[in-house]
Amino acid sequence: MAAVGFASPAAAQELVYEPVNPSFGGNPFNSSHLLAIANAQNDYERPSTASSSDDLDRFIRSLQGRLLSSLSSQVANAIFGEDAQDEGRIVFGDQVVEFVRTLDGIQLTVIDGDGTRTEILVPTLITQPIE
Q: Which of 104, 107, 78 is nearest to 90 (CA)?
């Protein structure tokens, strides 16, 4: 008798998925609610707007970059240009660039205003004829 009581006919209906987010086809009335929740969870703070001192700093960095580029062009012309020299010294403000042409290559020494020395060895390119 217990088996007959549990053997009632089963009923089911079709399951339909409906997205919540209106961007994916959900109810358009959910958009303001979802936006309010997202703004409440957002802890991002926009960086402060650029001040005139930031613009001045950017200008100074740009000018310094152009001047250093000019210095590097002068050094390259002194070493590899039409009137190439075997050794030399170029002074730019408190920076000094010395170069010496050796058997192994070109030795560059950069001396900063605080006395820091950086040495760079540029190897000489040796070309051999193809046989």
A: 78
Backbone φ and ψ of 45, nearest 5°: -115, 130
pLDDT profile of the chain (131 residues), mean per 10 = 61 84 82 86 78 81 88 82 86 86 87 91 76 68
At 40, give phi and psi (nearest 5°): -70, -30
| 97, burial (CB in 10 Å: exposed 0-12, middle 13-18, buried 19+) | buried
Alpha carbon dihedral 12, 16, 20, 21, in 10-degree steps, equals 170
Are 117 and 109 within 8 A, CB to CB? Answer: yes
User: For residues 119 and 127, is the Cβ–Cβ distance under 8 A?
Assistant: no
Q: Tell me how far apart the alpha carbons of residues 102 and 69 are, in angstroms, rounded to a whole number.
A: 25
- Outline where DSSP puts E strands in 30-116: 87-92, 95-101, 105-111
Cα distance between residue 101 and residue 72, in whole Å: 17
